Amino acid sequence: MSPESRIGVVGATGAVGTLTLQLLAERGYREVRAFASARSTGRTVRFGREELPVEAATPEALGSAGLDLCLFSVGASASRELVPGATRAGVLCIDKSSAFRLEEGVPLVVPEVNGERALEHDGIVANPNCCAIPLACVLKPLAEAAGIRALRIATYQSVSGAGAQSMERLRAQDPAGGNLGMDWDFDGEELEEETKLREETRKILELPELRISATCVRVPVLVGHAEAVWLETEEDLSPEAARALLDEAPGVRLAELPTPREAAGGDDVLVGRIRRDPAARHGLALWLVCDNLRKGAALNAIQIAELLLAPRPIAAR
Amino acid sequence: MSPESRIGVVGATGAVGTLTLQLLAERGYREVRAFASARSTGRTVRFGREELPVEAATPEALGSAGLDLCLFSVGASASRELVPGATRAGVLCIDKSSAFRLEEGVPLVVPEVNGERALEHDGIVANPNCCAIPLACVLKPLAEAAGIRALRIATYQSVSGAGAQSMERLRAQDPAGGNLGMDWDFDGEELEEETKLREETRKILELPELRISATCVRVPVLVGHAEAVWLETEEDLSPEAARALLDEAPGVRLAELPTPREAAGGDDVLVGRIRRDPAARHGLALWLVCDNLRKGAALNAIQIAELLLAPRPIAAR
Questions:
Q1: How many Cβ atoms from other residues are within 10 Å of residue A243's Cβ?
Q2: Nearest residue on chain A to B173, judged by CA atoms?
Q3: Which helix (H) or strand (E) holds B245?
Q4: A37, B106, B194, B297: least buried by Cβ within 10 Å?
Q5: Helix or strand or coil: residue A64?
Q6: Which residues of A are identified as catalytic?
């Protein structure tokens, strides 16, 4: 994107939308407009040193606002309603909901992992789930080096992943009342979050048959998602070799015992505890953490936008 | 034990010691004395409707107090100092620290799993780590039915596992400051807690070669430890068959999405989310939670004591 790109931020009053505005201001964008549901119109939101009025997000408003690109951080049903109105008017849409992620023809993009796929879009690029993004950043170099046969993942997901209201509830609660939760739709076998993590990881890594078993858990932490990961590889990969690959991987930083507090506010995926998994013939265990609002959502979407609006010839534009 | 058994509670002012006194009172024991480090003498501790004076725990005091049995909930170095004084005087010692757990000739006991081993003691019975106990309760019937080849475990351990002071720190903290932690000794490869969990699980289940990979994590929850578990079995075991076995397992209760809050204050290990692990040829994933202060510590130790002091002929007494 250039500073002149006209950008709409939809869902501008939420946890991810607020951070999206902050990151756009920090990066020097000037032509930014804020949209949210009708009940937020009349409010303003912070954009650098300015306050932007919140405009009502309707398909018509988004289509007629003269935007180059729209960043959506709203729920899947709102995205399904709003995104087509914007794409019809030629506005490039980066959608952070699950609405389009698995649709054929919609690239699902982590720039460090499969950025080239973003260029194949037909008006929509989807931003993956907040656990799938850091996982893909870490797995990509390992998969290229040794192949991945199977994955087991236990997540430790902060409440900010459930939105600004959940953050307020955690802030207001007695710390002794902290609990673990599994606050996602449950079909009796699997949480919806686990299905997303599996299907999206397969799509991003382009390994459609990859065997993945995930257990997703909400923890009483404000910001920062962590994942305990076991990966079985096709060929042997030593912890030292994996560490060397990850030390070179874009967007990834090695750390000894990384925590959400260490990751929060930063752009990197922190990875540590890389060791052999004695339970597998060829396997590694590792631990990763990232700021779920930044690399897990707002930052990744802006990085996609910057790939697409780069000041260079882009095939799909 | 009979109500007349003379029981010493060592570490009586700590989180587990306090609960041990409560459980002994609830179970009708009357001849109970409380011991702690010298700096706590002069204080009293609650025992049912009474207050007991805290006596200084020294090897001599424990050996000369006319006790039948002593329940130790102190650190490993204090146990190493105190337990021999008591055993020399013929006091049966149930030790909750890691001091003797892996020693040959010291039974490491979960009554529902290997209670018969308790009878082989030579003065000391060890109580396992707070994550190893519920894990063994759940794995035992599955191992008997299908054999276990390998285990992967991610823990979600509450701060009460780190003692009363950690509980106070969590109570005093801003909820927004919650973080994950790995507050155990770290050798650069593995946390001491993970080594314990592996070695103790092998000893309890009498599977000395069992391949186990664990990632242990502290979560900002007051009471209740949870574990996401993947087990590879020798033979096929369907989730339905596993559920039926666990429904019959002593000390275990099936639940759909059990949480620490649901487990806290109860005696059962709650287990749910039993499903196939698509990453293994024969494998299951499951999720378990238990009150780490009760079944994970104080209750399990009292159950061991009750096995040993049962009003029936006991070989090793």
A1: 16
A2: A175
A3: helix B239-248
A4: A37
A5: coil
A6: 130, 225
Which among A190, A230, A257 is the nearest to B152, CB-wise?
A: A230
- In chain B, the residue whose alpha carbon lies closest to the alpha carbon of A148 is B279
Q: What is the model's pTM? A: 0.96
**Residues A219, A220, A223, A228: what is their CA dihedral angle, to the nearest 10 degrees?**
-20
Residue A313 lies in a domain: no
Range of the domain at B63: 6-128+297-308
3-class state of residue B230 by DSSP: strand
Which amino acid makes up residue B7? I
Does residue A314 sit within a domain? no
pLDDT in tens, A221-274: 999 999 999 999 999 999 999 999 999 999 999 999 999 999 999 999 999 999
B282 is catalytic: no
Interface predicted TM-score (ipTM) of this complex, two decimals: 0.95
Cross-chain Cβ contact B257/A226 below 8 Å? no
Distance in angstroms (rounded) separating the CA atoms of residues B23 and B8: 13
* CATH number of the domain to which B21 belongs: 3.40.50.720
Interface test with A, best of B160, B170, B184, B215 (most A CBs within 10 A): B215
Examine the domain organization and report whether A160 and A252 are in the same domain: yes
Q: Where are the alpha helices (H) located in A147-251, listed in sequence order?
A: 164-172, 192-205, 239-248
Instruction: Select the residue of A180, A213, A275 nearest B156 (Cβ to Cβ).
Output: A180
